[in-house]
Every structure is written in C-alpha cells, then in structure tokens.
Amino acid sequence: MSDAKPKAVVLLSGGLDSAVTLAIAAAEGFAAHALTLRYGQRHAAEIAAAALIAGRSGVAGHDVVDIDLAQFGGSALTGGAEVPKDRAAAEIAHGIPVTYVPARNTVFLALALARAETLGARDIFIGVNALDYSGYPDCRPEYVAAFEALANLATKAGVEAARDGTRQIRLHAPLIAMTKAEIVKKGAALGVNLGATLSCYDPKTGSGGQARHCGRCDACLLRKKGFKQAGVADPTDYAA
C-alpha cells in the first residue's frame, strides 16, 4: 500500500483566508498544489504575497495562471471604479459591493478542477467564508455544494468515480462557517505567517516598494476586526 499523501489543489490568492486554508489542507495530510490566478486585478501585490506564502509553506507545487477578467469590467477590483472605504459593519454585511468580480469563484474553481484532473487529485480547497465577508454570492454554502455537484457531473474523474463506486471529487471550504476572529486564531495555531498575507482591496506602496494595507476598505476593516476579536497581535502594515 502506498503511503503517499493524497493530492489537493488549493486556491491561493495571497490573502489571509486562502493562506489559512492552505495550512489546513497541509494539516489534514494533503500534498497541496497551490493555484494562483492573475486575473487582471488592479494590484499585483497579492500575486507576490501568494508566491511568498507558497514558498514558505512547502507546497507540492504552485501554478500561477493568467486570465483576463478585466476585459469584461464590472468590478472595482479589475477597473477604475473607486473601492468603498470606511463602511460600517452593517453596511458591509448588506448587499453586494462593487468589489464583487462577476463569476470570479466559478472561473477560479473551473481552473482548479481542470488542474485537479491533470494531477489525479480528488480534493479542491477554497477559502470562502459566509460570515465575516462582503456579501459575495459565490461565498455561500449552497454555492459550494452546487459546484461540487457540477464537478462530479462534468468531469471524467467524477463520472468514473460514480461508475466504479470510488470517492468522487470533493470541494472543501473549511472556513465557510468561521468568523474572521476564528480564522485568525486557526492561522496562528497552525503557524501561518499572517503578516505575509495581503487582504487589501486597494493596497498602497510603502517604503522599499512593499505593499501596505490601506486600512479602510471592507477587507481591511474585517481583517482589523478579526485580529482584535481573536486577541492576536496584528502584524499588518496599515496605511491608515
């Protein structure tokens, strides 16, 4: 019997949630193959953060794939629209903000699914969260369940597994029901370098050319809240 670790594809954006998800996959015994998408986002700093995190995490592989969602527009993260700042918690929790990128997680997961098939992996990890988040429809449990069903209907691996009675493709969303504080605590417990992660929607350039969190966008406000409620020292470099 082979004692090789089972393979998993882990979507890695360079943010806090995806870094903790990567650590969870490794802790659960998977050989993690990180997948980062350069999708036309306005800031390349998160790609650098993902590379740093992957390099320090001892991943089995790290692919960076170029796609261009910016050509469609429709989001403040891929176009020139202003990123919302200084919003109250109630406002963040209500509605779908302009930072939503149309179909982003569906596109990302489709590519992760393709990579999983080529690797012979039956597991995909994504760091979506349905509690402390900005109202994105593709971060909800029902979306995760629907995509997992699609994955097993639309792939050779899924069809053959159903026919042979072997394990089908599974989409893991370990953070789905966690608060940001719980995510911070989990990351700290797993030894994630939380200071290396970049969650900001509108990062600034600090001294030495390093990216700084703006401190005012929805992602930064949720990040600050998470560290404070977790009682974990926040290593983030905020501009405000």
What does this structure look like?
The strands form two sheets. Strands 3-2-1-4-5 form a five-stranded parallel sheet, with helices on both faces. Strands 6-7 form a two-stranded antiparallel sheet. The model has no long low-confidence stretch (mean pLDDT 94). The radius of gyration is 18 Å and the shape is globular. It is α/β, with parallel strands linked by helices. Helix 1 (16-27) crosses helix 7 and helix 5 crosses helix 6. It has a single domain (7-199), classed as Rossmann fold (3-Layer(aba) Sandwich), CATH 3.40.50. Helix 1 links the parallel strand 1 and strand 2. It is 38% helix and 12% strand. It starts with 6 loop residues before the first strand and ends in a 10-residue tail after the last helix.
Descriptors:
38% helix, globular, Rossmann fold, 240 residues
Mean pLDDT over the residues: 94
Report the CATH superfamily.
Answer: HUPs
Q: Just name the CATH architecture.
A: 3-Layer(aba) Sandwich
How many strands?
7
The ordered string of helix (H) and strand (E) elements is: EHEHEHHEHHEHEEH
Based on CA atoms alone, the radius of gyration comes out at: 18 Å
Helix content: 25-40%
CATH fold group: Rossmann fold
Runs with pLDDT <50, length 5+?
none
With strands numbered from the N-terminus, the spatial order across the biggest sheet is 3-2-1-4-5
Compact summary:
38% of the residues lie in helices and 12% in strands. It has 240 residues and is an alpha/beta fold. α1 crosses α7 (180-189) and α5 (141-154) crosses α6.
